[in-house]
Amino acid sequence: MAAIRAAIIGASGYSGEELIRLLIRHPAVDLKIITSRKEAGKKISAIFPRFADSPLCFTAPDVAEIAKTCDVAFLALPHGLAAEYAIPLIESGLKVIDISADFRIRSTEKYKEYYTVDHPSPELLKKAVYGLPERYREQIRKADLIACPGCYPTSIILPTAPLLAAGLVSTENIIVSSDSGVSGAGRKVDLAYIFPECNESVRAYGVVRHRHLPEIEQELAAAAGVDSLAMNFIPHLVPTNRGIFSTIILRPTAKFSAEAIAAAYEKAYGNERFVRVLEPGKLPDTKHVTLTNSCEIGYVYDDHTGNLIVCSVIDNLTKGASGQAVQDMNIRFGLEETLGLL
Amino acid sequence: MAAIRAAIIGASGYSGEELIRLLIRHPAVDLKIITSRKEAGKKISAIFPRFADSPLCFTAPDVAEIAKTCDVAFLALPHGLAAEYAIPLIESGLKVIDISADFRIRSTEKYKEYYTVDHPSPELLKKAVYGLPERYREQIRKADLIACPGCYPTSIILPTAPLLAAGLVSTENIIVSSDSGVSGAGRKVDLAYIFPECNESVRAYGVVRHRHLPEIEQELAAAAGVDSLAMNFIPHLVPTNRGIFSTIILRPTAKFSAEAIAAAYEKAYGNERFVRVLEPGKLPDTKHVTLTNSCEIGYVYDDHTGNLIVCSVIDNLTKGASGQAVQDMNIRFGLEETLGLL
Amino acid sequence: MAAIRAAIIGASGYSGEELIRLLIRHPAVDLKIITSRKEAGKKISAIFPRFADSPLCFTAPDVAEIAKTCDVAFLALPHGLAAEYAIPLIESGLKVIDISADFRIRSTEKYKEYYTVDHPSPELLKKAVYGLPERYREQIRKADLIACPGCYPTSIILPTAPLLAAGLVSTENIIVSSDSGVSGAGRKVDLAYIFPECNESVRAYGVVRHRHLPEIEQELAAAAGVDSLAMNFIPHLVPTNRGIFSTIILRPTAKFSAEAIAAAYEKAYGNERFVRVLEPGKLPDTKHVTLTNSCEIGYVYDDHTGNLIVCSVIDNLTKGASGQAVQDMNIRFGLEETLGLL
Amino acid sequence: MAAIRAAIIGASGYSGEELIRLLIRHPAVDLKIITSRKEAGKKISAIFPRFADSPLCFTAPDVAEIAKTCDVAFLALPHGLAAEYAIPLIESGLKVIDISADFRIRSTEKYKEYYTVDHPSPELLKKAVYGLPERYREQIRKADLIACPGCYPTSIILPTAPLLAAGLVSTENIIVSSDSGVSGAGRKVDLAYIFPECNESVRAYGVVRHRHLPEIEQELAAAAGVDSLAMNFIPHLVPTNRGIFSTIILRPTAKFSAEAIAAAYEKAYGNERFVRVLEPGKLPDTKHVTLTNSCEIGYVYDDHTGNLIVCSVIDNLTKGASGQAVQDMNIRFGLEETLGLL
After folding, report:
1. What is the pTM of this model?
2. Which residues from C are below 8 Å from A50, CB to CB?
C-alpha cells in the first residue's frame, strides 16, 4: 500500500513537535511537508534537536504545493487561521485534521462568545466532524475535515459521556477541576511561564468561561441527549511538562449502582484500545500515560455525600492533541487504529 | 520579659524542622529541648544541616525534664501519642500546642471512625481549643491545650467559614479539590514518594473519607451554625515541595452579591495579618505564600452556573502546621501575634 | 523470520520497566518471561500501569523454564547475582545480556576493590563482551554474554574514546563532572531519594571511587592503547527523572586542531545512528535525548586554558541501560541495529 | 539608633525581590524607595504578591530624591547602568552597594573584553571595594562603593581562596563545574527559560569566556598572590529555582595533608558566621542553604589522582547576591554583621 503523504502546517510548537515525533515513526506515513513561517528554511532539528536524523526542513506554507504533494494535512495553527488552509486543501481532495479550536464548536454564536471573533467559516464548520474516535468513529471514517478535541475536553468527555448517555448521572451540577502541565500553555514565551514562576507553584486560571468550556458542554449535552447544560470547569497549572488530571464530581440520578457504572464503561470502552477504566478503588496518575495515547479513568462513589467522583488522566500533547490526530488519520484512511501509536 | 522556654517533642519530620526554623529565630523564645527517639544524641544539624549554627541536640523525650524546664511544649507526633505527653505536661503547668490530629475532632465517635482507634483521652479532649486564631482567638488566649488545625483544613476553613457564617452560601453541595506538595505526606520513606514517582506526576488519593474531612466538616458546620454537614474533599499530590492550593465550589443561598461576599471577608479578615483576600478577579498562587504564615484567598462568581468559586493557598508546613502553632503560642503568651513570623 | 523469544530477569526496577517498554513494541521480539521474586504472580501492569494492555505477569525466576522457552535473557539484577543465571542459560544456548555491573570490569582485582566481594565467576568473565556497540560491534555479533555498559560510562566513553584513540588528547588529567537524574539511583526506597529531599536540591556523591570509575578507566585506557589511566569522575544528583549530562575536561596533546577533532569524531561516528556530534559551538541538553537511544555530543575549545571541553547527554535508562541492551540484542541476532529503537 | 534609610534601584527582578524581602524585615533599616521604570506607580505587591502587607510602591528613579531621603542605595540594574546612579549618589554622601557587574573587575581591559563595551566609569572603579566580607571586611567598613560579587564567583572564591592563600593548591589547572538554578538567569522572558524547556533538562552554557570568569580569576590570583591565572569555569543550568553547586578540582602543591587543608579553612572561616566547612567526607547540598546567607563547603581528597575535590553551595539570590549585599551594608554601617540575615 502506498504511504499516506502528510503535511503539518504550523509545526513549531509543542503539538507540532509531538506530531512530527509520531508521524516520523509511523509505518504508513510519508511526512512530506512541515511548515512554519517563523522557522522556514531551517532544518526541523534546528528547533527540535531530537529529530537530528531527519533531513526535513520547515518551509513557508504553500497551499498549492501541499495540495499537489499530500493526502492529509494536519493544522497546528492559532485559532482563526485554520479555514484559510482547510478550504483550498479540502477542495483539492485532501483530508484535513485540525488541532486548533476553529471547528470544534458547532454554534457560531458560542464561538464568537468565547473567541471574541466571528467564526471564519460557518459553511465549512457544517462539514466538520468532532475527532473523538471513541464517540464519532463512524463519522470520522468519512470526514473531510476532522476537528480534533481540545486537551481538557478529551480528559473530561471520555470519562463523563458514557455515564450521561446511560442516564446514570445528572446533567446538573457537573463540576470539574483539572490540573495541567505547562506544555498545555503552548511554547509561549511569557513571564507567567518561565521556570521560576511555574516551579514550586500551583495556580488556577480561567476558572470561568475558559475557551474549552463550550466544547465540553456541547459534547456532554450531546451524550446526555439534551440541548444544553451548564457546568463548572476549573483549570489549574501545575509544575509538570506533560499531563492533565481531571477530577469530575457527578451526581447519580438514582440510587448508586456500582454495577451500572461498570456496565456503562464496559459498553463504551470494553473494546477500546486507548481508554482504560481502572478497577474500582484504583485512581489514575498522569505519569502512567505520559507519551502514550491512552486515557486512564478511575472512580469512587462517596456514600457520605452521594456524589460520584471520577478521575481521568491523559498526556495533553498525545491523546490531548497530536496522538488523537494520528488516531483520527488512521481511522480516516482505513488503517489499523493503533498504528504508530503503541 | 523572660523568654518563653519551649520544647518540641517529636521533631525529626518536616513540621518539626519548620518549628525549629521558626523558634530558633523567634525573639521571645528560648528553645530548650528538641526530642526524637530515633535521633536522640545527635545534633539537630546532623539531620537538618541548615541549623549548623545551633548547638542543640535531639534528646529522648523525658516528660519530667520538660516539665521542669519549659513553659510550652509543641507536640509533633504521629496521631494517638499526644495524650501521653499532654496530660502530665498540662498538669505541670505547661501549655501544650499539638500539631497532630488527636485533639482536633470534638466527637470521639468521628475520631474512631476515621482513625480506627479509640480516642486516647476523651477527658483531655474537652479542654482542647481548636488553634485557628482567626476563629478562636479568645479561647486560645486561655487554653491549656491547643489543637493546631491540619493543613488542608486550614486552607479550606479560612476561605469558607466567613461565607457560611454570613449565610451567603449553602451548607449543601460544598465541593473542595485540593493540590498539595509532597512534604504534606511527611518525611515518609515510601515508594510512592520517591522522586521519580512524584515528579511529572499528578494523582488523587483519599478522595473519600480522608482523615481531614471530619475536621473540615466540624468547623464549617460550626461556622454555619448547623449541627453537621457533608461535603466532598478531594486531595491531590502535585510535584512541589510546599504549598496547598484549595479550590472550593460553593452555591450562593440567594442572588449573588459581590458586595456581600466582600463585606463578609472584610468583617472576618479586615484586621487579620495572616489572611489576605485578593481583589475580585485575582487568584492566588502557592508560590506567593511559600515560607510565610499567610493564607491568600481569591474568588470568582460564575454567572453561568450560579456557583461561587473560591481558591486559597497556604504553605502547608507554615500556616498549615508550624507557623500556625507559633501564632497560637504568641496569642497564648500575650505576645504580638506576628512575632517571629514576618 | 521467527520472533526472538526473550526473558527479563529481575524486572521490577526502572531499567526493567524500560526494557519491557522497548521489548513489548519491538517488532522482532516475543517477550515471554518477566521475572521478579518480589512481584511474582502479579500482572506487570500492577506495578507499571502503562502496560495495561499486556497480559504478561511477573513470575519467580525458573532457569529451566527460561532455558526451554527463550533465545535471549536480559539480566536486570543487583550486582553479584548475574552469574547464577548466566552460567546455566549460556550452557543451554541462550544469549545473555547483562545490564548489571558483574561482567563489565575485566580485572577481578578491580571488581573486588570496588564491589568489596570476590568476583562471582572469573571463568565466565573471560567470555563477556563489553556491550558498547560503537566500539565492540564485531565482538558483540558473536558474544554469548554481553555486559551492558553502565549509564555514566556510556556518557563518558562515547565522547572521549575517539579523541584518545586518535592521540588528540592526553590520558592524564582527565576530569569528568556528571549530573544524573534520580532514576539513576534505581527504584530505591530511601530517605535520600524521596521527593522533598531531591527537589530543589543539587548534591555530589561518590566523588571518589564511584563504582563506575574502574569501568570508565578500563575503556578509556583501551581506547588510548595504554595499560591504565587514572582520572576524576564526580557524579551529582539533580532533580530530573531521566538524563545524564557529562562534562569532560581534556588536555590536547598537541596544538589544538578543530579539524582533527572533527575528523576523529567523523571517523568514529559518521555512520553511527545513535551518536550525534553537534556542530562546533553547539552544546547538548538532556531533554534532546529523553526516551531515545541517542548520545548527543558537543565540544568547545578554550584557548584561554588550552583545555578541550566536551559535553555529552544520554537518557540513563535508554542508551545508558535498556536501550543499549536492545541495540546489543539487535546486533547479536543479526537484526537491523535500530529496530524497535526509533 | 536611627534606622538606615535605604533605596533599591531597579528592583523588579529576582535579586530585587530578594533585597526587598530582606530589607523589609531588617530591624535597623527603613526601606524608603524602590524604583523600577517599568513598574513605576504600582504597589510592589502587584509584582511580588508576597509583600502584600507593604504599602511601598515602585517609583521611577529620581536621583535627587534618593540623595535627599536615603543613607544607602542598592543598585540592581543591568550592567553598564550603575555609574549613572553611583556617581551622584556617592557625591551626595550615600553609600552605594552595587549588585551588578560594573565595579567588580579591576581591569577596564578585561571589562571591555567580557562585556564588549568600554567601562562606564574608570574613575569610580578605583574607589570600589569588592564586597566579599570574608575577604575584604576591613575595606568594606570604609567603602563608598561596594561591588557585590557575582553568584558563581561567591560560590567559587570562598572555598578556593584560603587554599591558594595558604599555598596548598596550585594556581594551574583549576577546573570548576557549576550547576545553577534558573533564577540565576534573572526574571528573563526568553524561550530558553520557559518551564517546559528547563524542566527535565540539564544543559551547559557559556562554557568558555563566561562573564563571571575574569572576576573569579582576579580574586583567586589575588588570594594566591600572583598577577593572574587562567582556569576553566563551566556553568550548567539545572531545574531548580535557587541554588548553585560548584565542584572545584584542585591540584595540591605538595603531598596532600588533610590537617593543612583543615587548618587553612579554620583560619579563614573559624570565626565566620556565613561560611561553614563540613567535616571531612561530608558534602554539601543546595537545599541546606536555600534562603540563607550561608555558604557550605565540603572536600574530599582523591589519592587515586592526587586531586583535591572541593564542593560548595550557596543560594544564588541570597549569599550570591542580595543577602551578601545586606551583609555588606551591615558591615559598612557598623551593625551586627548577621542582623536581618538569620
Report:
1. 0.97
2. 288-290, 292, 294
